[in-house]
Write a structure and sequence with these properties.
Mean pLDDT is about 80; it is low at about 200-210 and about 265-270. The chain has nine helices and seven strands. It has helices at about 10-25, 30, 35-45, 95-110, 125-135, 150-160, 165-175, 215-240, 245-265, and strands at about 5, 55-60, 65-70, 80-85, 115-120, 135-145, 185-190. The protein is globular. The longest helix has 23 residues, at about 215-240. It has a seven-stranded mixed beta sheet, sandwiched between helices. Helix 8 (about 215-240) packs antiparallel against helix 9.
């Protein structure tokens, strides 16, 4: 299947497709993305408020059917971070691989970038397979901001049961303690000067390794814990009502944290 990349536009069509994509990949779509107004305020505007972010629509050729999106989050940084999301009906067909190769080429030709990073959830095996297929090199971990520092110890204690054999293999691959996978994201690094990828026209998806289907239990538990923390914070605000005008400050702080959490949910790669 042939595809093309084009820069996303502030149009009704692109907005509707973008919204449909996020609902399709959300872990709890009915609970998170049930308000179009919230989506417009947080997610859609995010695409255009920063000149450092470049988002591409992935379309089939010549039908121009919408497949998903890929983006560079911070083109001005020394090593930009990339992300990709596909509609469920276009996953596991080699489209993600082709789109990433095309984006690598655009970043190199248009911006002179040679190195990139991609962050992946430890239980997102399909994305890990894509990173390996693209010759991504394990480059350590980064703390998952969905889990606050105050809740790390408890979260690890409660969710050790999720560290199955597959998780142990990932920990060995990255050379880290298995427990860290519960509260961190995997980081893959790409150096175009050292990559030897197949041309897009030669990608063979018929004999690829079978993807490991996974219910994303770890990612769902992180999201649940994040929502629980927000609920607890709101309860704390209710109990701390006083007559000194401090309540409004606490509400504003909690609102900011909630917006940050929702923004982080958007960045979770699910392809």
């Amino acid at each position: 299947m042939d595809i093309r990349l084009r820069v996303i536009q502030d149009s009704i069509k692109d907005r509707e497709n973008h919204f449909a994509l996020q609902k399709s990949v959300a872990l709890f779509p009915n609970k998170i993305w049930d308000s179009e107004e919230i989506w417009e305020k947080i997610s859609w505007q995010e695409q255009f408020k920063s000149e450092s972010r470049i988002c591409y629509v992935i379309e089939t050729v010549p039908e121009f059917a919408y497949c998903g999106e890929c983006a560079v989050k911070n083109i001005s940084s020394e090593i930009p971070e990339l992300e990709i999301e596909l509609m469920p009906e276009y996953q596991h067909q080699g489209i993600g691989y082709k789109a990433m190769i095309m984006m690598f080429d655009k970043m190199k030709r248009n911006y002179g970038k040679q190195e990139f990073l991609v962050k992946v959830e430890p239980d997102n095996y399909a994305s890990q397979f894509l990173m390996e297929k693209l010759k991504g090199i394990p480059a350590g971990l980064v703390k998952d901001s969905l889990i606050s520092d105050e809740r790390v110890e408890k979260f690890v204690e409660v969710h050790r049961y999720l560290l199955d054999e597959r998780m142990q293999e990932i920990a060995e691959q990255f050379g880290i303690e298995t427990n860290l996978l519960l509260t961190h994201l995997l980081v893959y690094k790409f150096n175009l000067n050292k990559m030897r990828t197949n041309p897009v026209s030669e990608v063979n998806t018929t004999n690829k390794r079978k993807h490991i289907e996974c219910p994303r239990n770890l990612s769902k538990e992180k999201l649940k814990d994040s929502m629980l923390e927000m609920e607890e914070g709101l309860e704390e605000i209710k109990k701390s009502m006083d007559s000194n005008g401090k309540l409004n400050d606490k509400i504003a702080a909690m609102e900011a944290r909630i917006l940050d959490k929702v923004a982080l949910m958007e960045t979770m790669i699910s392809n």
